[in-house]
Amino acid sequence: MKKLSLTLTAAALAALLNTGCAPLLIGGAMVGGVTVATDRRTSATQLEDETIEIKAGSRLREQLGDRVHINVNSYNRVVLITGEARNEADRAEAERLVGGVENVTRVMNEVAVTLHSSLTSRSNDLVIQSKVKAQLIDARDLLSNAFYVVVERGEVFLMGRVTEREADRATEIARQVGGVKKVVRAFEIISEDELARITPKKQ
Question: What pTM was computed for the model?
Fold first, then answer.
């Protein structure tokens, strides 16, 4: 019975991973990838990013089916695709399909040409993702919602509109989390002055 329960839990975690932007379970509470109120993107851009993820995911399923296992994450119209493709042609086609979605400005193609990842690997990625996000929340010198965390096969991809200082600090934090094989910075770097302009003023 215990083994069945663990299997079902792993399956549920993997299902969340396949949505691209999986929610995180931290301390028993559900925490989304970003919080609208403190997000550094405009509300319109946040909506565009969600639409891009849905449209790109749909195109990949329609055109490539189970030949690929690809997760789509969009931040400020820059799209990160991760996962696996069985050959280079499918990997390139995935990039072309995603790049053709309306409002996409750039595609970061981090899809590996290899066999599809296992259920265990995907579940482990979600655990790592939760740990990285939790560490960012605990860091008092960072705004955790400024960071978008994606994990694929133990590799952590960090996205967000952040300063160089914030990028370095978040990278340092992610590298210290157990199970992390590599940290890939996919940030949009902004100046400290720009950060001051977009940060809501305290009442």
Answer: 0.80
